[in-house]
């Protein structure tokens, strides 16, 4: 009895080798892929399969495949016919969407991705100003794999730069959640280079408006607390001032108004002036500089909020904020109130240092 | 029947476990695989206030455990004997049989749930029967070794809680505003959500069956209550995690929101952390399946006089058949619905009724 039992157990252990294997060298991993709009309700799916050349360490290049079809899963089936190894989605880190498709809505494509058990929840999404396939075909990274290059581009700009973070999870959160709308970074091809040219704003899953680089950073200031970045302002006499942000804090307050809620945003920035010291009397000048920045940020920030209200989009999540302060919050009621909601912005700039010189 | 309450109240000391192990027993049988999808339904009723329902149900279960101990301490016996004393040989035997059926279906459900997770997240082409066969062989091996070994496995299963640290990867995405405004839902909603929370807390009924296997069982009540409190703590973590990380509308789309946390893990040396997470779920499966199968085979032995190992082998075969007969998500869901209804009856009707009946009998005998 005991012996036969042991034999069965040993068999179970050995039979585990019969499960389908996925050896890294024998599957086609891809890091970036792109969706574009094609004719007649169809989509064009582009995949940058990685290609490793032996004997040349670090030499990774891409093989680009494109196909047109109705569904991305069907297209993947077509691509398998062109590849010597099966496609695996486990390593996708960046997904690009062409602008035309983004204007039509990207929820269908995202649904496929978020249904996939292998897909990471923290992958980056981006909109391409133009055609995503063309961007992938451009030779923008000579010595790096294209997917890794784009991932690092987005990742470093989210962590240290002016791009507000929005990955697959956060996009879904903002898209499905009530009282907030998603946004995504906007990529653009300039000659042979890719750059982040701004922010694409969404209403539900449709791209409706864009912000440029400067507006994007002001948006990021209003969106999250920061510990990096630079801001510029007009000095009034034609020259520009620049300040490095050491720390910025944004506080939202909701108060009850006569008609609907009133929102006050308090942005306090501690910064280091690095490019403004033409004057000899720094003390008086610093006060002036402070004012200039405060005025400039308030103006631009209010402009942004005005744009959001007229477009009836809510990337800052003001609706969600009001929800967390209101009992029995209703989305329809908020959407009616939103364009008339009183939003006040109060910016407080403090110059803490002036670089390593007085 | 006279003086029936000192019947087989004490097991051979070699077979019993220390009272403090009641903590492990209660906690590990409650904390199974259900927590992966636990937060979806309460959140549908009570939204971001669902954590209050978790507390409510937890407190409810503290009372239930107290009732169980009152009932068992007075009779100094396990429920199998109490059934016979209260209702006679036939009705008591039928009640015991119903419990056997419930235990078998419940352990089949847990097993099928585990296999489903493996199929969806790791190996889609894996056959249900193959994995079920391997697991059931292991379960037979564990259960046939006796109660003390099963509790050893339960203790080992506590290791799964180290995975709680993987939640840290999701911390940057928490939205604390999701918790406000507190108490935005009516009491009715909270009660409905608490009703949905009952199923994850189920398992305490095992105390009715293994009471005699605890040394000085009266002393173990404190530990059982602590075990329930620990479960409540972990369930609160789970529900807070779901509310902070997801929007209500997102949760409605998820099947295993708690499992999605592994999709956030991003480490240079391991790309797919869900493989580790899914494998560790076996720690949630074994205590439940083993204890339920042990309890049903023991009930069979005492009520119908079959050999325990024979009964166990038959039950394992039955579970195997049932597991293979549950084909897809929809069926699993309907089995769960049925089980949670049975659970509600056991917890809120059966146990209080038994407690009251016993109280009346006790009072009558003294008068």
Automatic annotation (TrEMBL), chain A:
<feature type="signal peptide">
    <location>
        <begin position="1"/>
        <end position="21"/>
    </location>
</feature>
<protein>
    <submittedName>
        <fullName>Ger(X)C family spore germination protein</fullName>
    </submittedName>
</protein>
<dbReference type="Pfam" id="PF25198">
    <property type="entry name" value="Spore_GerAC_N"/>
</dbReference>
<dbReference type="InterPro" id="IPR038501">
    <property type="entry name" value="Spore_GerAC_C_sf"/>
</dbReference>
<keyword id="KW-0732">Signal</keyword>
<keyword id="KW-0309">Germination</keyword>
<dbReference type="Pfam" id="PF05504">
    <property type="entry name" value="Spore_GerAC"/>
</dbReference>
<feature type="domain" description="Spore germination protein N-terminal">
    <location>
        <begin position="21"/>
        <end position="188"/>
    </location>
</feature>
<dbReference type="InterPro" id="IPR057336">
    <property type="entry name" value="GerAC_N"/>
</dbReference>
<keyword id="KW-0449">Lipoprotein</keyword>
<comment type="similarity">
    <text>Belongs to the GerABKC lipoprotein family.</text>
</comment>
<keyword id="KW-0564">Palmitate</keyword>
<dbReference type="InterPro" id="IPR046953">
    <property type="entry name" value="Spore_GerAC-like_C"/>
</dbReference>
<dbReference type="InterPro" id="IPR008844">
    <property type="entry name" value="Spore_GerAC-like"/>
</dbReference>
<keyword id="KW-0472">Membrane</keyword>
<feature type="domain" description="Spore germination GerAC-like C-terminal">
    <location>
        <begin position="197"/>
        <end position="355"/>
    </location>
</feature>
């Amino acid at each position: 009895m005991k012996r036969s039992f042991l034999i069965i157990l040993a068999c179970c252990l050995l039979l585990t080798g019969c499960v389908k294997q996925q050896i890294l060298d024998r599957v086609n991993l891809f890091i970036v892929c792109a969706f574009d709009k094609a004719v007649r309700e169809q989509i064009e799916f582009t995949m940058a399969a990685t290609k490793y050349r032996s004997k040349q360490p670090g030499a990774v290049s891409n093989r680009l495949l494109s196909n047109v079809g109705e569904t991305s899963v069907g297209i993947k089936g077509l691509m398998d016919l062109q590849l010597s190894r099966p496609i695996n989605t486990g390593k996708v880190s960046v997904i690009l969407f062409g602008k035309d498709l983004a204007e039509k809505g990207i929820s269908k494509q995202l649904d496929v991705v978020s249904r996939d058990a292998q897909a990471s929840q923290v992958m980056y999404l981006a909109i391409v100003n133009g055609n995503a396939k063309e961007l992938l075909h451009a030779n923008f990274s000579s010595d790096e794999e294209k997917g890794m290059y784009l991932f690092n581009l987005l990742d470093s700009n989210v962590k240290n730069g002016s791009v507000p973070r929005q990955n697959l999870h956060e996009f879904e959160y903002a898209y499905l959640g009530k009282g907030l709308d998603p946004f995504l970074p906007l990529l653009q091809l300039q000659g042979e280079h890719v750059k982040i040219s701004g922010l694409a704003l969404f209403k539900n899953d449709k791209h409706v408006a864009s912000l440029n680089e400067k507006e994007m950073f002001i948006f990021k200031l209003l969106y999250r607390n920061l510990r990096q970045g630079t801001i510029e302002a007009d000095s009034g006499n034609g020259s520009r001032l620049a300040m490095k942000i050491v720390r910025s804090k944004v506080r939202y307050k909701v108060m009850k108004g006569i008609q609907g809620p009133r929102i006050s945003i308090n942005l306090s920035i501690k910064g280091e002036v690095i490019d403004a010291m033409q004057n000899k009397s720094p003390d008086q000048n610093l006060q002036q500089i402070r004012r200039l920045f405060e005025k400039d940020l308030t103006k631009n920030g209010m402009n942004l909020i005005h744009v959001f209200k007229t477009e009836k989009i809510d990337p800052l999540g003001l609706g969600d904020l009001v929800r967390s302060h209101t009992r029995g919050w209703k989305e329809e009621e908020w959407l009616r109130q939103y364009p008339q909601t009183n939003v006040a912005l109060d910016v407080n700039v403090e110059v803490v240092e002036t670089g390593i010189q007085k | 029947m006279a003086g029936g309450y000192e019947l087989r109240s004490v097991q051979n000391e070699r077979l019993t476990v220390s009272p403090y192990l009641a903590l492990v027993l209660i906690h590990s049988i409650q904390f199974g695989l259900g927590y992966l999808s636990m937060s979806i339904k309460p959140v549908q009723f009570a939204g971001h206030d669902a954590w209050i329902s978790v507390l409510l149900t937890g407190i409810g279960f503290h009372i239930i455990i107290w009732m169980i101990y009152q009932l068992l301490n007075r009779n100094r016996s396990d429920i199998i004997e109490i059934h016979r004393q209260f209702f006679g040989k036939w009705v008591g035997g039928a009640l015991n049989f119903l419990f056997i059926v419930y235990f078998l279906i419940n352990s089949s459900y847990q097993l099928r749930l585990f296999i489903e997770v493996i199929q969806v997240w790791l190996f889609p082409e894996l056959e249900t029967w193959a994995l079920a066969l391997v697991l059931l062989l292991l379960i037979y091996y564990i259960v046939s070794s006796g109660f003390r070994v099963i509790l050893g496995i339960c203790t080992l299963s506590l290791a799964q809680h180290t995975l709680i640290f993987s939640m840290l990867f999701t911390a940057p995405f928490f939205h604390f505003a999701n918790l406000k405004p507190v108490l935005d839902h009516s009491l009715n909603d909270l009660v409905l959500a608490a009703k949905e929370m009952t199923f994850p807390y189920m398992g305490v009924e095992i105390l009715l069956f293994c009471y005699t296997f605890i040394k000085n069982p009266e002393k173990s009540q404190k530990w059982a209550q602590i075990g329930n409190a620990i479960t409540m703590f972990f369930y609160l973590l789970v529900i807070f995690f779901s509310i902070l990380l997801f929007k209500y509308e997102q949760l409605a789309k998820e099947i295993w929101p708690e499992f999605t946390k592994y999709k956030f893990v991003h480490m240079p040396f391991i790309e797919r952390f869900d493989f580790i997470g899914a494998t560790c779920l076996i720690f949630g499966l074994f205590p439940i399946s083993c204890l339920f199968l042990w309890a049903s085979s023991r009930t069979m032995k005492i009520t119908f006089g079959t050999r325990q190992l024979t009964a166990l082998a038959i039950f394992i075969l039955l579970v195997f058949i049932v597991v293979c007969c549950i084909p897809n998500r929809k069926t699993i869901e309907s089995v769960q619905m049925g089980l949670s209804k049975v659970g509600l009856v056991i917890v809120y009707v059966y146990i209080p009724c038994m407690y009251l009946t016993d109280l009346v009998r006790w009072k009558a005998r003294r008068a």
